[in-house]
Amino acid sequence: MTKVFGSFVANDHIDLTIEPGEIHALLGENGAGKSTMMNVLYGLYDADGGEILIDDEPVRFSGPGDAVAAGIGMVHQHFMLVPVFTVAESVALGYEPTKSLGLLDIAQARKKVIEISSRFNFNIDPDALIEDLPVGAQQRVEIIKALSRDAEILILDEPTAVLTPQETDELISIMRQLKEQGTSIVFITHKLREVRAIADSITVIRRGKIVGEASPESTEAELASQMVGRAVSLTTEKDEADPGDATFHVRGLTVVDKAENVVVDDVSFDVRRGEILAVAGVQGNGQTELAETIIGLTEPRLGTITLDGKDLVGESVKNRLGAGIGFVPEDRSTDGIIAEFAIRENMILDVYDREPYAKGLNLKPKVITAEAKSKVEEFDIRLGSVADPIATLSGGNQQKVVLSRELGRQLRLFIASQPTRGLDVGSIEFVHKRVIAERDSGTPCIIVSTELDEVYGLADRIAVMYSGRIVGIVGPDTSREALGLMMAGVPAEEALAATDAEAASADEPAATSAGPADDDSAPTSAEETE
Amino acid sequence: MTAQTVETTSPTHAKVVAPIAWKFPIVYSILALVSFVFFGLIGRDGETTFRVASGGDLFAIPDLVVSSTAAGLTLGILLVIMAAVSVYVAMRRLSIGSWFPMLFGILFVLSFLAWAGGGSGGVIPLTTLLAGALALSVPLIFGAMCGLVGERSGIINIAIEGQLLAGAFLAAVVASVVKNPYAGLLAAPIAGALVAVILTFFAVKYWVNQIIIGVVLNVLVVGVTSFLYSTVLTEDPGLWNSRQKLPDLPIPLLSDIPVLGRVLFDQNILVYIMYVVVIALQIFVFRSKWGLRMRAVGEHPKAADTVGIKVNLTRVRNTLLAGAIAGLGGAFFTVGSGLAFGKEMSAGQGYIALAAMILGKWNPKGALMAALLFGFSKSLGNTLQSIGTPVANELLLMLPYIVTVFAVAGFVGRVRPPAAEGVPYVK
Predict the structure, then answer these.
(1) Which domain holds residue B268?
(2) Do B335 and B245 touch, CB atoms closer than 8 A?
(3) Of A63, A220, B154, B389, which is most buried with the most CB atoms under 10 A?
(4) Nearest CB to B6; choose among A65, A66, A488
C-alpha cells in the first residue's frame, strides 16, 4: 500500500497482515505514517497504490461506510464523538434505528448501548452527554460504537495518549477480552511499554516504510532502536539537583474559566533555584491553565504568584517577561511561533522593541540577523536561511527556535508546557539537555508534561494535578503506580501507601522520604513570603 | 477482568465564589424606577382604554378603562418589587426561570401603554396590536427557521434577507400572471432555494467565506429584483404585478375565541403552514434521523464522516430546504398580505430573523418566541404612532431595533452555536 501527500511519501509500499483474533501492534515515531496507513484502511483516504484484502477477497473502500460494512472499526486518536450528543445518540449516528416518519427509536439505541456496555462491564450510562464523560469513558463509547456495528477488526489509534496509567490497564484488559471473543485488534502506538504488555505481534514503521517485525519479548531498548533507526539513550543524564532558595511561590491560586468552572483550584507550591518541578497529570486537569496564569495570559480569581518577592498578579505579560520568565507554550504552532514570520523575526518576538534590536521606531535588521545566526549555531537548528518563514521548518527545529528565544534572556523562572510534544527522539534529547542546563545555571524550572517518561527524565520533584488541584508533590523516585493513582485523584499518602503495600519494602525508603520532605518545605516557605 | 471505573471524586471547590451577576438586577431596577416615576408619580392625568373586543366575538368583553396615573403607580410598584426580588436572587446567587423576564416585560409594556394612552384619552386596541405583532413576525419566523436549519448543519446563511426578497418577488409575479395567489405560494420556495443553490455552490464547493457570499447574495437579489421591477414589472403591472391575496381561512370554533382566537386562527394558509413548520422542526431537529445527522455535520463533521454520513451532501440538501423555507416567508410580504411587489420590500427583516435565531439559541421554539418579541415591538411602535403619543415618531420606529440589540447582547447569555458552523468540510 502506498499513500503520497504532494511530494511526501507517507506510506511507501507497506505490506501488513492481520491474523484473526490477534493483537497486532504498529510501532513507530510521531510522523512515521502509522495513522495515515490506518486512515487509508478505514476508507478516509484513498490509497495511491496497493490493495486491501479481507479473507483473501480484494475490497475497495470509497468511504468509511464501506470499511464499516466490511467489519472494520476504528477508535481515532481524537475521538469522533459529538460533544453535545448523548451516548445513545452517538452510538446510533449513521446507523439510526427509526420508527415511522424517520423518527429515532431512541429506546432501541439505548438498549444496544446497555447490552454491549454490560457485556464488557463498561458501566456507561446511555443518557449521559459525551462532554460530561471523562476521556476514558469516551473511549469506551467509541469502542461500543465500533462493536455495535459488528467490527471484526478494531483499529485503536494511539488509544493510551489521553489515559492515566490505571485507565491504560483497564483498556489493556478490555483489549484482551475482545481478543478472546475473536476480534482482531490493530494497536497503533509509540509507547514501548504497552506494546510489550499486550501485543501478539509487532510491526515497526519508520518514515513510511516497514523496517521489520519484532517479537513482544524484545527489550524496550531493542524496540526503540528499531523504531528510531539508531541506538538511543532512553534516560536523560543529569546530575543530582543542587537546589537553592525558593524564589518562586504560588499561593492559593484559583482560576475560573469563562463558563465559571474552576479549572485551577487552590494551588500552592514553591520552586527553588536550580531545581525542576515537573507538573504531571492527564491532559485537561488544569496544567495548561496553571502555566498560562503564571505567564499572565489568564488572570486568577484568587491567590498570589510571587517571583523574587514581587507579586505578579495583575501585571501584564510584558512586565512578567521583563521580570525574567521564559515560557514555552503547549501549542507550538498557534502560541509559540508566528508561522508566516521569518525565523529571525520569531527569535526576537519578546525583545523586538529593545536595544540593540530596535532604535526608535526602526528595527535593526543587521543586528537581528547576526543574533539569529549565532542562535542557529548554538541550538543546532537545521535551516536554509534565517529569512525563511518559520513554517518551513520541522516541528523539532521550530521548537528549538522557541527555546532559543525563551532561553535567550537572563531568566529568573522557566516554564515549559509539553516541551517535546510531537518531536522526534533526537530533538527530545536536545530539548531535555537544554532544560537541564538551564536548571544547572540556577534557574527555577517548571515542566508541564503528560508523558510520564519525560516527567521521570527531568523532574527533581513531581507535582501531580487532578481536577485543578495539586494532589501531592512527591520525589522523583515515586513509583509509576503511585503516580498513576495520584493522576486519578488519590491523595499522595494513600497512593504511596497503597503501592508500598504491594511492592513490599522495595521503594519504601525513597517514597516515604520524598513525601514528608515536601510537606515540610511548603509551610516554611509560606512563612517566608509573609 | 472487570474494567473498573476510575473514581471521579467530585472535588469540593472551596473558597471560589462566582462574582455576583449585577447585570440583570441593574437593568430591572432602572426599568422599574422609570416605570414608577415617569409612568406613575409624574404620569399623565386622564384615562386609558384597553380595547380587547372585536367584531364577531362569541361574547363581547367590555373595554377596560383605567386611570393612567393609578395604573402607572400600581404597575410601577409591582415592577419595583420584582426588581427587588431580582437583587435578592442575584445576591444569593440563585437562578430564576425565564418566566421572570417575561412577566417583567409584560408589566413594563402595560405600564408604558397606560401612560402612552393617557392624556390624549387614547384607546389601545389590544387585538389589533397582537394581530399586527403576528403578521410582522411571520417573515421573521420563516427566516429564523431557515437560519437554524442552515446553521445546525454547518452553513452560515446571511442570505436570508435575499431569500425573503426573492420569495416575495417570485410569489408576486407568478401569482399575478396565473391570477391565483396559491400559484405564488408554490413559486416562492423555489426562489428561496435558488438563492441557496448559489450559496452552497460557493460555500461547499469553493470554500468561500460564507458570510461574504451571504452579503453578496443579498446585494445581488436586491439588484436583480429592483432591475426587473423597474423594467418589466412597472411596464405592465396588470399582468406582472397585480395584487393577489391569499384568502383568510378562519378555523371554526377556535377562531371564535376572544382576542387570541381572532389573532391566531383567522389567518391565511401561509400562517398555518408556519405553525406546522415550527412544530415539525421542533420535533424533527431533535428526535429524527434527519435531525441527528444534521446536527452531527454541524457540530463535528469529521465524526459524521467516519460513520459514513456524506457531510457536504447533507449540508447542501439542508441549506436548500432552508432556502425554500425562507422563500415561503418572503411570500408573506406579497401574496400573504395582498400587496404588489415593491423594491427592497423585505427591508432588513432577514437580518432581524438571524438575530431571532441567535436569541432563540438555535432552537425552533426559542427562535419563534424571539421573532414574536421583535414582531410585537414593531407592532407596538405602529400602534403608538397611530394613537399619537408624546414620544417622537423616529424613536418609535427604532423600537424593534433597540429591542433586537438589547435582546441579543444582554439576554443571550452563554449560548453555543453549532461548533462547525461556517467551516467548510475539507477532507
Answers:
(1) 128-373
(2) yes
(3) B154
(4) A488
